[in-house]
Amino acid sequence: MGFRRWSAAMMVCAASVGTAQTAPPAGAPANATRPAFAPPPPMRVWAPKKTPYADYKAPNRPWWKLSDVLALHKGEKSWSQPIVRNKDIVADWHQIAPGQATPELAYSDNRTGIIVWDGEITVTLAGQPPFAARKGFEIDIPFRVPFTLQTVGDRPALYFEIHAASDMPLYPVETTRSRPKPVDGFVYEERLAVGPPGQFDAMNRPYLDYFKEVVEGGARAGAFIAAQHMFVNNIRGRAVPTPPASNLGHYHIGYDEFWFVMEGNVDLQVEGVPTFTASPGDVISAAQGRWHRASFGGPEGQMGTRVAVNPYPAGLHGYTVESGGRQ
C-alpha cells in the first residue's frame, strides 16, 4: 500500500473513531461509551531497528519477581523499591506500615497510576470522597490533584506506583510542615502553581476494582489510563501453548514497554533473553528496540491478565513482513 493510500485509510479510521461507539469500559457509568477503533492496514516501510538493542540498566530487569522484591525488604515495615527507570516512565513498589500515611502531594503534569496488591489503603483525593482500595484495585490520579494513601487495619499495604519520568511531586504548603529536601538536582521553593487540575469523566474514573468487576463480574478488560505520556492497558485472555521461538512478536522503535502480571501466568520472549514464565505480582519488561512476544501461559484455558504500560496509547508496533502484522 502506498503512503497516500495508507494516509487516506488512517483518515477514514480517525473519522470512525469519532462516530462509531461500542460498550462502555469496565465499571464506567451506564451511559458512558467508548469509541470504536478499526486499525488501518499495515504500512510496509523501512523501519529503524535499534542495533545493538537497548541494554537493561539497573534497576531495570527483564523480570522482577515479586518474591525477590519482598526478600530484599524482609523485616522492614515501610520501604520503596525502584523497578522501572527509562526516559518515559518510572515505577516502584512501595509498602507502608499499619497506621502510616504518605505525605499529601500532587504531580505536576501527568496522571499517576497505582495498583494495590496487598493490605488495604484509604485513598484521599482532593475533590473526591475517600475510598478503600484493596488487592487488584487500579487507581487513576489526575495531574495536579493532591492525594494521600493511608493503611487500614493491622497489615502493611503494598502497592505499585507508575509515573511519567518527567514529573516532579508538588507539596501543598498548608499540609507540609517544612520545605522538602532537594532531590535529583532540584530545590523546592514556595511558588504559586498556575494551571487547572486533571479531571475525571466517563473515560477516566478514580479506580477500577479489577478482580470484582472484571474477573468476577465479567466486565470487559481494556485501557484504564490512556493519556498523554501514560498508557495503562489491561490485556486479558486464556492460556495457550507457548508459541515457537520463530514467532518474534514485535518491537517498539522509541520506547520501552513493561507489564504487571495481574492474573494467571505470562510467557515472555524478549530478544537476547531466554523465554520465561512470570507469575502474579511480577513485573516484566522489553527494552527499547528488542523483539518481544507475550502470551498467557499456565494450564491451557486458564485466564490471565497482563497490565501493559508504556508512554503512547497509539504507539507504533514493528512486525516481521512474514507475520502480516500479527503477533
Automatic annotation (TrEMBL):
Coiled coil: none
Annotated signal sequence range: 1-22
Domain of life from the UniProt record: Bacteria
Gene3D superfamilies registered for this protein in UniProt: Jelly Rolls
The keyword Metal-binding appears for this protein: no
Record flagged with keyword Kinase: no
Residue intervals of the Cupin type-2 domain: 249-297
Pfam families linked to this entry: Cupin_2
Keywords: Signal
Entry protein name: Cupin domain-containing protein
